[in-house]
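Spend some time on the protein that follows and explain the fold to me:
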Amino acid sequence: MRSIITSVFLCGLLSACAQPNGASNENVTFTKESGKNFIAGFMPVDVQIVKKDGKDTPFSDDSDRVESFTGNCKIREARYTTSVSVPGKVSLPAYSQGALPIDVSCTFDGKTKQVRLQPENLSRLQRQSSNIGIALLCPVCGLGSAIGSSAKGANREGDVYGFRKIIISPE
């Protein structure tokens, strides 16, 4: 039993350090060579235009969607551009340094909606997911892992920044 718990714990720790991987950059056009610096990988990102019922809570999920729209979105960052038909998936660069916000412009039902999105710390999100998994299997181990992670800070050197999903509200 002890070796199983140790194995699960070590797997969780290793997955917290995992680098993003995904589809290639076939749709991304780099407008500046500096956009190719510090790429940790390409993340497959879901892009959707959805109208929700307005009952956003900390625990809301995809089940509170009322209407989904189809259209096209252009994604621009200072160093690259890409486009995607929505709903759809696009591979975006994830950076170990110098991640910048993206501008998303979506056209649907004769309307255009533009938003600016900030990159997320993907490494931190992975660490949090690993801590939850460890806590479910071994509450004492999970508590120790969470305390150890929080002592090192939320953002660490070498963390990877990028985007998990892009959800645009039509309003």
Observations:
- The first helix runs from residue 2 to 16.
- Residues 1-25 have pLDDT under 50 and may be disordered.
